[in-house]
Design the sequence.
């Protein structure tokens, strides 16, 4: 397991930017949710990643399926950071904003840096559109935009003009304006469009006219940059490839990586994967991805609700598959009774929580890390479950593999915490060497020998009980949620047995802890004035801010927890090397509370529950507060 | 291998229901069905929820899972999907299966998962000491309804049919002659075999089915239907059912006076609307409670469909990893040197 | 007080469904029903679960509760029990009401709580982006069923009847002529008025009801039943329903050739078995989808029964404390001096 | 609220026993579950309480409805401690054991003190019965019982003999043997039987023959003590009345007290109570008790499951009632999603958890305190809910009243933790003076004025939002689980608003904390070497052990928490007066963990998860360990 966490540190080889002005560019594309913004953004991300840049993305779309066009709440945006250094966050402010309508301008202009490039589609600035966006006056005329390098282009018109000859309807032509825009942005970043071209041909293979129209628009946009006499202050961005570790890469988001990782883990354990789930934002894509793995032998089951989902996964685990279930906070809440059953019956089970803003339905499309308490403590009884958290899209794969290892080695359910941000964000990902090194097989042995078989006898080291699967002759036994007699597993109401079993369940977590790789420092030294202790998707901003501060010579380190529960046994000692520790997290202080209980020292937390990841400057502020600016 | 006996299907735990509880008879009938049918211990899995009836798996020498309240169908579905070779039985009660677990019962029936659901209907919550249940008769006095329950009791078979159940039957705990063949038929059915068993709770609802079980007068109050056979019943086999004139209704008639058995309605277990009417009988005076297989229609078993598309033969670890490698590369990839 | 208009029933929030979504029409029909019927804003409570359809309460100027997924009937039951003077509407979807919420739907219907359930059936999960739902046709391709869904789609009206529903109706989103009177009838019904609305999701399941809604050919595929009226349908009103010879079956016949409207089956909304058959129609070619009130039978409303036994007039605080004091003393007491 | 906690301290006036040998007697009656043991025990408790003794009881019966007769697991027992000093616990060992069959003897002989009185029903010691109980030889003959003062009586035979003339069948006659036994025990304790007599007449008013038969048996048993020539070493127990505070008393168990207290609280708040629940051991009696309060205007609703139960309660609260729901651990697990909704919509709601042994179905009929984590932390999102715990049967009433006060004053759901032990145990209870003093009304004001009405505007002091009830003209508004805009309450996806609302929800708990009575010391001084910090039903054993230790001059105090979350603000300062703190609790260290997080000092815990309350000597051991024996 130790090796797996090296994956993350491998990224550490990427340099920190010392001159943000030239090392990376943060661009945001925003428009109506009908404008194809997410597609445009992800194609741009793909191109940048292919080119060899490091990238970080933040798709941000409305909760509504199709919000009424032209409204502020209907705006969809894709933020992208393209760097020749390590980027990891999508950027506190953007260097460039492409606003395809007034509402998009209104919503995001505040986050464009002074002097930033502002491209707007002038065709969309009609009176009615301005009014819908809540503009009393035309912002192009009243000086509102004077702080920026404004580049107004009649994108809609230019697109339809480019397609006039193609034969497509005006409506269809207008729908191509995102490709026109993408072409222009490619030009801006000195990128060729051949990648997008082949993707378009592929995507619309069955609709050649649509493919052709999109291609025409794309090329027209690209060409526009080349030939139009753009004002002198509009310069192109020159971002060289980042010195990434060698290997084969693709982009991936956290949900994909999680599903693939779970499948990989099951395979390395010589198990078939069973994914039982009920759709919920932002976890549904896990189900969608699993459904596509059927040819690979993975079973997926869309249950009638979250309880049925976990029930089916427990049933599948009992029958010898690797049972997996996934959901988000409110759905996880429904699973907590059954989680107790999984603990009681000591079956392997993976529970993925792709967290979103709470409480209750909360902010379903926004990110948050506020289900940590639920994962660690959220059950009746003394019901320990290990919890592990992923910190970036690619990490979801590794965390998934490790979770399978723990669950099968110790015969226990395990929680994996992901969140809406990394679930949807795309990042370049070095493809793993499956079957080797960090991904070596860890085949599971099921019980087959009736001789001396005791279903609730525990391995003294791992505290696992034997996994005896229905269908195996001679191992017939009954399990259930009533307390079981140690060893034989029959129902037992005996007080001493219950005390012993409670201790065994607790000891299982101790066994897991003993097995954990020692906690390391993500960036910075192993001692100093301040350690920022983070977990999950806050990794990116904390790392960026810490590395910049270190470059400035500040005695700060970043310690990032993958193992939330049990905590790595050396954590306390490690943190004793720091005068102060602060926990920035996207909740109201949950890990901080946990650490206070476990470390026996003050652990202040800094909370950000704004439906988005921390900004780098918010983390920098913490560092400055403690160490001094 | 020698065929197993009833005894072989009994675990070594003491059976701990109240003396006289109807559950004993059902347990025995199940064990006998399995033994007679040549089932093996290792390929049989009994999953239950919580309730007196749900203790049943402990008394079986097969694999068993005493799960949580109302959720047995979900575990059973997962286990069956994972291993279709298992013969899976769900044991549940009127509280477990119809109160907290009504939704899972709906969906297992709708999907038509190839397993058997045996619902012990004693019209009461036994294990929690006698509160009224969703099947209790209106007016039932219980600790939680001292003034008599207000709700209309649900008819489990009517519900099962409404949920899309494809095999729906009703039996009486102590009438092994009907119960055992029905359990056997449910097991043979490719899909969800739903069997409601009217079960006596001696402690909290004693005797509610006595009228039906009475050796002497019981036949006047129950009708055992069999596919293709006329619907005749009664101590003297002198009563029967006919379709009401308007259609969509059943009437009880007395044979004689020119009315012969041939004039009676013949049971057609493929007619769902008839089944609905048969299931509903028994609420009014003079109507028999119908037992036997009310409905059986073999369409669209779920597990087979859900597993369709899996590799024909199990993949080796390496084949799986290779396919995963290929899948990961369906996205565009690039090399950094 | 002057009667309120449709507009008065609209809240000041922008309606945020996709342009063209069938939900708009249902919202309008509900607002109009309330306005026409003289409802007041303060005595109307709309409770919903989660889903596109469940956003509806936000757009009503009445009291509203957008609760959690599948649970609206439970909140509605509590509110109605607490204050029977409220006119309570439950708004739900095929996922909200029949997938996660199937159990509560069962029990609210079984109890026959005096409220209305409007179930928007678009045969898809809209809000979570298009996965198949329990009512989706078998074979539905969706993100979670790329190879086509395996399960049989549930028929909401058949289910509602199986659950003991006493008022069961079906409508089409944009046919206000049928929808509005049905909503009105559901509201007037003392018990649970269950209304399934076939609703078009333009994004994930567009056009599945087009055949029924088509101005020209739609009448060939839908039958609007009304109590006491013969079951005639068709563009030329030349088709109708008759009871199959065996009973317990319906057949579509064409008028003419000596067959007259009088020969057709007359709708009897009190016959539950007929309702079950009508509800099930539409699955096979040539069968019409039946709309209108399929079943209405006014027995055993729950709230009245559940509140029976409460003090006739509300007790003052002192009266309550006195009674509590007396209750505490129904056990033996003694004094320590 | 301060006053309410005086109730508990009133009991402090009872003296501690300095001579346990004479101050109290611990008797256990055990037999088949069909033997009417629980009835016999509770009648004896009643008589003792009426006489003026302090009592503590522990009913302990099998999980099965009717376990097969004669088996060990079918044994039902009732333990009772009768004292002229404060007793509070049912006793670590018994002074007397009445065993009505061999199984009962086998199960409980180990807990009879050496030299204790042992009464057995000789008629039941048949060969078959001995075998069923697992006796190889007759324990009466092989010296097994030589350490005890054995009194074998043919109770069955004596009973049937006494009833021979009465005309009842032999079967019915045999069923009266519990009354015969009760008569004898009354004699042993120098108690008159007139109380039992009038209770019998009342109970069997409709069945005069049965009443008569029971009366005959009762009198015969009592008379037997008087006239039979009992061996000299059998002396009667002389326990004088305890110096209880003056007032009117009855016995009550925790479930009854809880239901009555909730009704009282609702009434004092000028609200109607609505109890929505689904049966579950050991919480069902709450539902049964509420069902009987209908004539008093309380509504109860047996829902289809726990989710429907809490849903109905939230609906009732929205409609203006006081919504209450109750369950035990696994049922509470199912409610956690809806609890988030109650927090989000800021409605008053009472959630009672009568805890039992976990995890999962666990030990449904045994007691435990292991749902504390679930109550405090068991939800998705940042979802604070206050938690308060009852420490003895009568305290359930007061805690219920206080919970209603908090829920309505701050518009919040609140958890009340009780457990299987206090739920079933009977204790003498001084009847409250409703409407006065501690029980003064605290009427709730609902919103009625449309002028400036904002459904999510918060009172700056209590952080309550207005309670606007459907049916009120002009206050129409929509609430729900999606994040709401502060003030107006419309759906809001705005990040800053979410941060603010998260803080408001947290601040609500601060407001509650500000309002709490300062934490006091239950027994002992406000500083010293050791403080035992307890909560819930561990109160009795901790208090008894602490008071005895104090008598012996040990520097130990007992601090008992009613308010688990938020904790009383002065707790930290109070505990600073002690060198060490130890938390004994019936779970694997849950309060200890919480306190570690909140107090910033080491908090060792001592765990007892044996399905029964702590023994006094287990607590004494803790004290001796820290302070020295
Ligand atoms: C989540 C949960 N809620 C409630 C219970 C309590 N409980 C156990 S069994 C039962 C009802 C059993 O009734 P039924 O299914 O009819 O079984 P029977 O005992 O009558 O055979 C209830 C309410 C529980 N164990 N778990
Ligand atoms: C506990 C829980 N599980 C899952 C979800 C996600 N979810 C929201 S709406 C929905 C389905 C909605 O389908 P339907 O009721 O048919 O409504 P529609 O959007 O089609 O109108 C799901 C699965 C949720 N909000 N809460
Ligand atoms: S309580 Fe009733 S159902 Fe339960 S075991 Fe006893 S007789 Fe059977
Ligand atoms: S997704 Fe479908 S159901 Fe939802 S608002 Fe859009 S059209 Fe309507
Ligand atoms: Mg039952
Ligand atoms: Mg839908």
Sequence:
């Amino acid at each position: 397991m130790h090796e797996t966490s090296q994956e993350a540190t491998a990224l550490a080889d990427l340099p920190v930017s010392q001159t943000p002005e030239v090392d990376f560019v943060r661009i945001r594309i925003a428009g109506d949710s009908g404008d194809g913004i997410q597609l445009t953004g992800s194609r741009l991300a793909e191109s940048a990643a292919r080119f060899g840049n490091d990238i970080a993305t933040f798709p941000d779309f409305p909760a509504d399926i199709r919000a009424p066009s032209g409204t502020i709440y209907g705006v969809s945006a894709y933020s992208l950071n393209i760097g020749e250094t390590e980027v990891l966050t999508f950027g506190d402010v953007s260097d460039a904003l492409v606003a395809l309508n007034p509402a998009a301008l209104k919503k995001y202009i505040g986050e464009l840096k002074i002097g930033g490039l502002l491209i707007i589609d002038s065709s969309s600035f009609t009176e009615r559109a301005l009014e819908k966006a809540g503009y009393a006056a035309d912002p192009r005329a009243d000086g509102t935009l004077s702080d920026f390098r404004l580049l107004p282009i009649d994108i809609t018109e230019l697109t339809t003009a480019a397609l006039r000859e193609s034969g497509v309807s005006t409506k269809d032509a207008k729908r191509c304006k995102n490709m026109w825009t993408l072409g222009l942005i490619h030009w801006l970043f000195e990128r060729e469009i051949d990648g997008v071209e082949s993707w378009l041909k592929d995507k619309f293979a069955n609709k050649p006219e649509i493919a052709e129209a999109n291609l025409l628009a794309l090329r027209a946009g690209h060409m526009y940059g080349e030939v139009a006499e753009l004002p002198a202050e509009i310069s192109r961005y020159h971002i060289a490839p980042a010195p990434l570790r060698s290997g084969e890469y693709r982009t991936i988001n956290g949900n994909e990586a999680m599903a693939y990782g779970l499948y990989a883990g099951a395979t390395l354990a010589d198990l078939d994967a069973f994914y039982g789930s009920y759709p919920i934002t932002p976890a549904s894509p896990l189900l969608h991805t699993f459904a596509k793995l059927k040819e690979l032998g993975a079973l997926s089951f869309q249950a009638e609700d979250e309880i049925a989902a976990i029930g089916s996964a427990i049933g599948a685990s009992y029958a010898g598959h690797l049972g997996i279930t996934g959901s988000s906070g409110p759905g996880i809440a429904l699973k907590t009774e059954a989680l107790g059953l999984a603990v009681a019956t000591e079956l392997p089970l993976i529970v993925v929580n792709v967290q979103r803003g709470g409480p209750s339905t909360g902010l379903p499309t926004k990110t948050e890390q506020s289900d940590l308490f639920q994962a660690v403590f959220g059950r009746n009884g003394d019901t320990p479950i290990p919890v592990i958290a992923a910190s970036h899209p690619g990490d979801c794969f590794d965390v998934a593999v490790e979770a399978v290892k723990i669950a099968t080695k110790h015969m226990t359910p395990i929680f994996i915490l992901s969140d809406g941000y990394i679930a949807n964000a795309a990042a370049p990902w070095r493809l793993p060497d499956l079957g080797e090194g960090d991904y070596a097989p860890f085949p599971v042995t099921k019980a087959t020998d009736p001789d001396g078989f005791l279903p609730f006898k525990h391995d003294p080291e791992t505290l696992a009980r034997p996994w005896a699967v229905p269908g195996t002759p001679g191992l017939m036994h009954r399990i259930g949620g009533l307390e079981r007699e140690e060893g034989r597993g029959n129902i037992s109401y005996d007080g001493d047995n219950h005390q012993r079993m409670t201790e065994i369940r607790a000891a299982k977590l101790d066994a897991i802890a003993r097995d954990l790789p020692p906690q390391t420092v993500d960036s910075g030294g192993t001692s100093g004035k301040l350690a920022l202790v983070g977990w999950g998707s806050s990794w990116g901003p904390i790392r960026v801010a810490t590395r910049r501060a270190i470059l400035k010579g500040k005695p700060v380190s970043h310690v990032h927890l993958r193992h939330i529960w049990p905590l790595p046994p050396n954590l306390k000692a490690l943190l004793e090397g720091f005068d102060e520790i602060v926990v920035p997290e996207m909740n109201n202080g949950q890990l901080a509370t946990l650490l206070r209980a476990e470390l026996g020292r003050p652990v202040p937390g800094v909370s950000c529950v704004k439906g988005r990841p921390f900004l780098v400057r918010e983390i920098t502020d913490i560092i400055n507060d403690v160490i001094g600016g | 291998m020698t065929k197993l006996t009833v005894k072989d299907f009994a675990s070594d735990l003491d059976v701990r229901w109240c003396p006289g509880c109807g559950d004993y008879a059902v347990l025995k009938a199940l064990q006998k069905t399995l033994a007679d049918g040549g089932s093996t211990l290792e390929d049989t899995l009994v999953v239950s929820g919580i309730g007196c009836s749900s203790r049943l798996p402990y008394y079986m020498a097969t694999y068993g899972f005493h799960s949580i309240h109302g959720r047995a169908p979900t575990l059973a579905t997962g286990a069956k999907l994972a291993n279709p070779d298992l013969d899976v039985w769900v044991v549940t009660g009127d509280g477990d299966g119809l109160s907290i677990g009504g939704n899972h019962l709906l969906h297992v029936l709708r999907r038509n998962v190839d397993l058997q659901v045996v619902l012990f209907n004693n019209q009461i919550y036994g294990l929690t000491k006698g509160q009224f249940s969703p099947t209790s008769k209106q007016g039932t006095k219980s600790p939680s309804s001292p003034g008599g329950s207000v709700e209309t009791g649900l008819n489990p078979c009517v519900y099962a049919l409404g949920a899309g159940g494809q095999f729906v039957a009703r039996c009486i705990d102590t009438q092994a002659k009907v119960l055992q063949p029905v359990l056997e038929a449910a097991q043979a059915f490719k899909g969800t075999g739903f069997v409601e068993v009217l079960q006596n709770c001696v402690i909290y609802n004693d005797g509610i089915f006595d009228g039906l079980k009475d050796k002497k007068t019981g036949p006047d109050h129950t009708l055992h239907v069999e596919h293709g056979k006329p619907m005749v019943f009664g101590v003297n086999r002198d009563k029967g059912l006919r379709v009401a004139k308007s259609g969509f209704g059943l009437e009880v008639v007395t044979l004689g006076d020119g009315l012969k058995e041939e004039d009676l309605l013949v049971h057609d277990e493929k007619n769902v609307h008839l089944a609905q009417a048969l299931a509903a009988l028994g609420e009014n005076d003079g109507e028999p409670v119908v037992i036997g297989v009310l409905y059986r229609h073999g369409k669209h078993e779920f597990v087979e469909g859900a597993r369709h598309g899996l590799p024909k033969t199990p993949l080796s670890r390496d084949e799986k990893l290779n396919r995963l490698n290929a899948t990961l590369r369906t996205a565009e990839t690039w090399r950094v040197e």
User: Anything to note?
Assistant: Chain A is about 40% helix and 20% strand. Confidence is low (pLDDT under 50) at residues 1-12 of chain A. The pocket of thiamine diphosphate (ligand 2) is lined by residues A 278-280, 306, 330-331, 334, 361; C 50-53, 69, 93-96, 120, 122, 124-128, 133 (CB under 6 Å). Chain A has four domains: 6-227, 249-439, 445-515, 528-627.
